[in-house]
Structure formats: C-alpha cells, structure tokens
Amino acid sequence: MDSVNLEVLKAAIEWSESDRYTLLATVVRTWGSAPRPVGSMMVIRDDGHVRGSISGGCIEDDLIWKIREGHYRETAAKKLTYGISAEEAHRFGLPCGGTMEIVLEHVTPASRLRPLLDAVLSQGLVTRELDLESGTVTLNHGARVASLVVNDRHLVTVHGPRYRLIIVGAAQVSRYVAEMARSLDYEVVVCDPREEYLDEWDVEGVQLSREMPDDLLLRLQLDAHSAVVTLTHDPKLDDMALLEALKSPAFYVGAIGSRANNDKRRERLALFDLTDEEIGRLHGPIGMHIGARTPPEIAIAILAEMTAIRNGVPVLQSQAMRAGVLTAAPAGCMA
C-alpha cells in the first residue's frame, strides 16, 4: 500500500472519529488517459479539507464545492463518472478525453478503516469488501482478488502489506537513506551489531536492531514488499545479510562499494549456496548513476533505483555501469 493511501486512511479515521462528516473517494475505473491509477484514494471532510488525490486537482475542486454545499450526504455509497464528454474531460483536467469512475462512501465505524489500517501497518495483506447499497464492510486476510473489483453491488479492494526497508549499517549515509525512505512511507529497520554505531542514532520512527544481520533477516521473513541495502563497508556484516537477502523474495537487494569491490563480493558469494541467478539480483554498485558524491546524494541515488525497481521501470544506467560499460563513479559515490 503506498504512502498516499496510508495517509488517506489515517485522515479518514481521525476526522470521522472526531464526529466530522467524512467521505472516502476511490478510483474504480479509468478509460483513456487518467491522472491517477485505479485504487487511488482521497478523503474529504465536510469543510472541504482533503488528503490524497484522484486527479490533477479539478475533480477534487468539484467534489469539495459540492460537499461544502451539502451534496452526497446519503448513507449509501455512490458512483460518479467524470469526463464522459470532451468538454467535461477538459473541464476536469482529464488528458486526452480520459474518463474516470469513482466510488464515494460515508466513513463511519462500520467502514472498518481502523482495523484495516492496523493490519496494513502490521505487514498484513487484507481484502476489503464494501456493499455499495448497505455500506456494510467485510475484511478478510489475504488477497481475494488481484487488486480491485467493482460491480453494481460490491467494491472489493486489496490493501497492504506495507513496504519495508532493512538497512545494514548505521553509517552517515544510512541516516539519509532512512530519512528519505520514511518520507516514502517505508517501515525502516536499521541493523548494526557494532555497539558504538547505534548510540547516537536519532532518526524518528526508525526501528533499531543490534542483531547479527542474517539473524534479523531470517526473523523478519522478507517478502516481495521488502528491500535490503548493506552500507557498512565491512564484508563480514554485509555479506552475511546478502546471503539471506538474495535467497529471499525481496524486491531489491543492494550493496555499497565500488565496482571492483562488488566484483570481489560476487566472487565471495559464489562460494556459498547461491545460484548465479540469485547473485545476479544484487544491485552493486548500489543506486542510480547520477554522479552522487555526498551522503545525501548517495541516498537519493539509492532510493531512486529502489523506486524504479518497485515501479517496474528498467534502470539501464545502473545496469550498464555494473557491467563496466559506463565509467564508475568516484570513490565514495555508490561506493
């Protein structure tokens, strides 16, 4: 579940539990070009305050105006379609004549958003089924559908699990990676068994572990929503983590170090029970090749590559650099 939709759920719970009239809007269908994908959510309060986004802004403006005027106060969920005509598509900022269908639902305790949020924050995978006529909501663990299904009677959505990032090594670069990853709403765990490295750690909302990296990764049971980056420059620690991470379903595994150091690392990993395919999953040198030199720039490069992989975008520059086609960055950058 992405960070925007998590913030939407949090706001919807807070506003509705404060006795404010609150509506949750979910994009359920799109035709042609649309600014936001199916599953995007936005919450609107009776005074027009919003969290999240379902378009470039014009649909939000229309809904805000109507809700302030007292529209959409019925209990049953409501389907709305924007952009049927070229004129309406232009009015609401939908590109290329795109059309969007959304579902509006009144948020109440029966919406069961709090147990849904709790499950997602606990790395759960939850299917939420909304009866569009009665407003009744059923939550089931696991994915009952691929992502979203809507018909005349029901809206079924899948939520979670939350993305996690495990950082091995509490170095200066780690601090910037953790802060940026938190802004992207990753659950961040920093692992460093070296006692002196965690003493001054003060990044809010980050879990700290003094376990050995391989023990931690085994305990966390990495899934396809997990990423692991090793930043210690100490092969004894980094390699231990990589041996477990590369065998896991983690969507991203990266190691700091120059191209030469990563070549040596791959040779060491080949001595253990890893296949060539598993070793080939390693992103090292870590991060997109953007000429990064300072710790914040290196962190940006790492998070950019992670984001590209997560979104299914090829990272050709980084792949070319790892293969030696591009000149490696100076020592210290993606090092």
From TrEMBL:
Domain XdhC Rossmann: 165-306
Recorded superkingdom: Bacteria
Residue intervals of the XdhC- CoxI domain: 15-69
InterPro entries: MoCofactor_Util/Proc, NAD(P)-bd_dom_sf, XdhC_CoxI, XdhC_Rossmann_dom
One Pfam entry name: XdhC_CoxI
Name used for this protein in its record: XdhC family protein
Species annotation: Noviherbaspirillum denitrificans
